[in-house]
Design brief:
The complex is a heterodimer of chains A (about 375) and B (about 170).
Chain A: H1 50-60, H2 73-76, H3 124-127, H4 129-133, H5 147-154, H6 157-166, H7 176-188, H8 196-201, H9 211-220, E1 252-253, H10 274-277, E2 286-287, H11 309-317, E3 322-323, E4 330-331, H12 349-360, H13 365-369
Antiparallel strand pairs in A: 1-2, 3-4
Chain B: E1 3-4, H1 17-21, E2 30-34, E3 40-42, H2 44-49, E4 53-59, E5 62-70, H3 71-77, E6 93-99, E7 104-108, E8 122-127, E9 130-131, E10 140-142, E11 156-163
Parallel strand pairs in B: 1-4, 2-11
Antiparallel strand pairs in B: 2-3, 4-5, 5-8, 6-7, 6-11, 8-9, 8-10
The chains are: A mainly alpha (about 375), B mainly beta (about 170).
Chain lengths: ~375, ~170
């Protein structure tokens, strides 16, 4: 699943039988969260079970989910890259280059909106349909409603057991609906909570991050830079949905990445939430992505148009990007929809190094190699 | 208990010069001045000796406990108008709170005076029993009944009582 996301989150009072101490769920699933780390909300109509998560993991890594059996979800969401693909823009199973880059799935269970530019997509179960059956762009290229997919899965012996375990009450469990629910369940377990930053902040290990990174953290949370005003909270992603937390509206911002002289200031089709709302004030507004694992998810921005973290800081320090020539020429600083938070700042070289040192503390090496999130087919 | 977020929504005048100060001048004191009888320069040790209050808030769904001293007690010690004296012209005064990074917020004195309210606004210096993180402290305001956290000013360095002119 790329570019779209769904963070469905309906509270499930009964099913969220979270054990405070170990945060183990009733069926034995344990998020292994540090003390004080928020718990994700799980929708009442798709309770999290270990069996569903395991089925979802097999499906996530299975190229049978693409029509020509060349791509799986994991093609564009690679664990070693914090579930991104290293490309500026994703490439579908038929070779079609997509408008935007694959979004990280890290902590997607907390996200209050799932797509770069769709404020109406909130549930992972809904989002899963887009890469499977979408035709513009073509991602996995399956044909709705998915009879070919279910027939293909029914022919694989291991799925008989996995679907039966995950949906024991259903005599014919191999359905697209169950594929969606299982993929969503697996994705909700992709939780980054063990970075050096987490050990520093939640476990209070004072030496978990360097003095440089601590200075960088102060800069990050300072008014002159104001990074924290969009990349806020424990997930550094703006609005989140947590178990017990207040509902929050997703946030989309225009950061002054472009300012074309044409009617729309951003290059089509990447016009931001305008694409959905058709409100001219929404041109250029994109989701605030998490900064967790940001050091391993280059290139950056919705279209991968900035290659390094250093260059991202240049963009924000300038209060918007200036492109001096070519079809995208323009002074992003002056984009009429630009967020006032992107006001520009000055960093000394040592401050810049400190800020990047802080951002690097958000890399969760355990997540990038966690066996529970890895490709199960490799072991067969 | 209410949700606090790191997002601060109040507008702040931007100053490039402040960047250089940030994180490099660790002000470990809290200056209390302005229209008070006894200006103070407080350290963490001074706050530790004063009556302590803990406020509990929810941050992203997780309970967090901040410890510190009631703002009212600090202002009373500095001789700012309080209690029975907080009336008439004294009510036309406010408290300006300033942070190391240039952020500023204000409270009216009556917002935290115990004769007016039992709102436990504190100057916090601990989070779950430990010193605040560098980006928060060493001192910050916690206003647990504010629906938004924007007045929970971090890296607090200065409290100034301002009396409006007649």
């Amino acid at each position: 699943m790329s570019r779209s996301g769904a963070f469905g989150v309906a509270v499930s009072a009964l099913l969220l039988a979270t054990v405070v101490a170990g945060r183990a769920r009733a069926d034995g699933w344990d998020f292994q969260l540090p003390h004080g780390f928020p718990s994700p909300r799980i929708p009442a109509d798709n309770p999290l079970t270990s069996a569903k998560v395991e089925l979802g993991r097999y499906l996530f890594y299975d190229t049978r989910l693409s029509a020509n059996e060349t791509q799986a979800c994991a093609t564009c969401h690679q664990q070693a890259r914090a579930f991104t693909d290293g490309r500026a823009r994703a490439v579908g199973s038929t070779g079609q280059v997509h408008p935007r880059g694959s979004m990280s799935l890290v902590n997607v269970a907390f996200a209050s909106a799932l797509a770069w530019a769709n404020p109406n997509l909130h549930r992972l179960e809904d989002q899963a349909l887009i890469p499977m059956f979408g035709v513009d762009p073509i991602e996995l290229g399956m044909t709705a409603p998915g009879d070919a997919l279910t027939a293909r899965l029914e022919a694989v012996p291991i799925y008989a057991r996995l679907f039966a375990d995950a949906f024991p009450a259903d005599p014919t469990p191999v359905t697209v609906e169950h594929v969606r629910q299982s993929l969503a369940s697996f994705e909700r377990t992709i939780i980054s909570a063990r970075s050096p930053y987490d050990r520093y902040h939640f476990e209070r290990e004072d030496d978990a991050i360097s003095a440089d990174a601590k200075r960088g953290e102060v800069l990050f949370f300072s008014q002159p830079l104001s990074c924290f005003r969009c990349h806020s909270g424990f997930n550094f992603s703006g609005a989140v949905e947590t178990e017990g937390g207040d509902p929050r509206s997703p946030e989309f911002h225009n950061t002054g990445l472009y300012n074309l002289s044409t009617a729309l200031s951003y290059p089509p089709p990447n016009t931001g939430t305008y694409e959905v709302t058709h409100d001219p004030s929404d041109v250029g507004k994109f989701k605030v992505p998490t900064l967790r694992n940001i050091a391993v998810t280059a290139p950056y921005m919705h279209d991968g148009s900035i290659e390094t973290l250093d260059a991202v800081l240049d963009h924000y320090a300038a209060g918007g990007r200036t492109i001096s020539s070519g079809p995208y020429a323009g002074v992003g600083h002056d984009n009429p929809n630009k967020s006032p938070i992107v006001h520009g700042f000055v960093l000394t070289p040592s401050q810049r190094a400190d800020l990047i040192a802080f951002l690097e503390t958000l890399t969760d090496r355990a997540l990038l190699t966690d066996e529970r999130l890895s490709n199960p087919w490799k072991k067969k | 208990m209410k949700t606090l977020t790191f997002a601060v929504l109040a507008a702040v005048t931007f100053s490039v010069g402040l960047v250089a100060q940030t994180a490099q001048t660790a002000a470990d004191t809290l200056i209390v001045g302005g229209a008070v009888k006894t200006p103070l320069t407080l350290t963490a040790a001074d706050l530790a000796k004063m009556p302590r209050t803990t406020v509990s808030v929810t941050e992203d769904g997780t309970d967090v406990h901040y410890g510190g001293v009631l703002l009212a007690d600090i202002l009373k010690r500095a001789g700012a108008p309080n209690g029975a004296a907080l009336r008439g012209k004294a009510l036309a005064s406010y408290l300006l709170c300033e942070a190391k990074d240039g952020y500023r917020v204000v409270f009216a004195l009556a917002e935290f005076d115990p004769d007016f309210t039992d709102n436990p606004i504190i100057v916090a210096d601990t989070r779950d029993g430990k010193p605040l993180f560098d980006y928060q402290g060493p001192f910050r305001i916690m206003a647990p009944r504010d629906k938004k956290a924007a007045r929970g000013i971090r890296m607090l360095t200065k409290l100034t009582v301002v009396q409006l002119p007649d």
